[in-house]
Structure formats: structure tokens, C-alpha cells
């Protein structure tokens, strides 16, 4: 592969990646584009967090400050959700919507469930024992 072919291919890759990032509407490039994928770039998110990284490293990566804040917010939201049901979130922190977390209901049952599904499915043992209605989550006396 000659230098000219490589540069054209690299330029197309850069354009594709930039289009994806612009399409997401969350990130913009703070400095002019450099020639090589390993060249450092300055990035900043819409909340003003800034970081330096390579173009290849930023593909599929979001602002780590925003990601950390989102995890803390999600963990707190899930803890409050469990408390409303008389239970508790036993896992230390939220990873993502697909990663199962450990939960405990008001009756001490412990199970794992994905955060994305927990508002639809509470304690499976209580559901089997008909202690909770699966739709309303109302505790039956």
C-alpha cells in the first residue's frame, strides 16, 4: 500500500468517525485534525469536560467524567427505587443497564436482575409466593 492510498483511506476513516460523533450530538473536536490516528487530540463534551486522547481511542468512548456522574446518579436512583419497594440494592455500583445487580426485597430474598428490567420485575420469590403483584408491585396483606 503506497502512502497516497493510506492517506486516502485514513482520511475516509476520520470522516466516518467524525460523522458518527457529530451525529451523536454530544462531542465536538476542540483542535484541528492531525494526520495520524495516534496523534493526540483535544476533546471536550457538551458539559465542558476536556481530555486529550487519540482518535482511535475515542471511538466508542464517551467522556469519562460524564460517565462517572451517570453511574453515581443511576446507582442512587436504583437505591431509591429499591427502598420504595421496602428492599435494597446490594451491589456497590451501577455498571450499565445490561449488567445484573444484586437486590434484596423486604422479606430478605436476594436475587440478581438487570437494572433495565427491575421496574417490571421485582423479587421473583415473592412473585412465586404471590406476595407481590407483578404489575403493580403492591404488597398484599
How large is the share of residues in beta strands?
A: 15-25%
Main beta sheet strand tally, sense and closure: 3 strands, antiparallel
Number of DSSP E strands = 6
Strand order of the largest sheet: 1-2-3
Structural class: alpha+beta
State the shape.
Answer: elongated
Low-confidence stretches: 26-38, 134-141
Task: Estimate percent helicity.
Answer: 25-40%
Distance between the termini: 75 Å
Give the mean pLDDT: 70
Task: Tell me the radius of gyration.
Answer: 23 Å
Number of helices: 4
Order of helices and strands: HEEEHHEEEH
Protein name: Zinc-ribbon domain-containing protein
Verbal overview:
The protein is α+β, with helices and mostly antiparallel strands. It has a domain of 55 residues. Helices cover 37% and strands 17% of the residues. The chain has four helices and six strands; from the N terminus they run αβββααβββα. It has a three-stranded antiparallel sheet. Strand 5 and strand 6 form a beta hairpin. The protein is elongated. The N and C termini lie far apart (75 Å). This is Zinc-ribbon domain-containing protein.
Question: Can I get a quick summary?
Answer:
This protein has a domain at 85-139. The chain is 37% helix and 17% strand. It has 4 helices and 6 strands.
Task: Give me some keywords for this one.
about 140 residues; alpha+beta; three-stranded antiparallel sheet; about 35% helix
Amino acid at each position: 500500500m503506497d502512502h497516497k492510498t493510506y492517506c486516502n483511506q485514513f482520511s475516509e476513516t476520520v470522516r466516518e468517525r467524525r460523522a458518527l460523533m457529530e451525529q451523536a450530538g454530544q462531542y465536538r473536536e476542540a483542535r484541528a485534525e492531525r494526520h495520524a490516528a495516534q496523534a493526540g487530540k483535544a476533546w471536550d463534551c457538551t458539559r465542558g469536560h476536556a481530555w486529550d486522547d487519540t482518535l482511535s481511542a475515542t471511538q466508542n468512548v464517551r467522556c469519562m467524567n460524564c460517565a462517572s456522574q451517570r453511574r453515581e446518579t443511576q446507582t442512587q436512583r436504583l437505591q431509591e427505587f429499591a427502598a420504595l419497594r421496602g428492599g435494597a440494592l446490594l451491589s456497590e455500583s451501577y455498571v450499565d443497564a445490561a449488567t445484573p445487580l444484586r437486590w434484596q426485597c423486604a422479606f430478605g430474598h436476594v436475587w440478581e436482575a438487570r437494572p433495565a428490567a427491575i421496574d417490571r420485575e421485582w423479587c421473583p420469590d415473592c412473585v412465586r409466593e404471590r406476595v407481590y403483584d407483578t404489575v403493580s408491585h403492591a404488597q398484599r396483606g
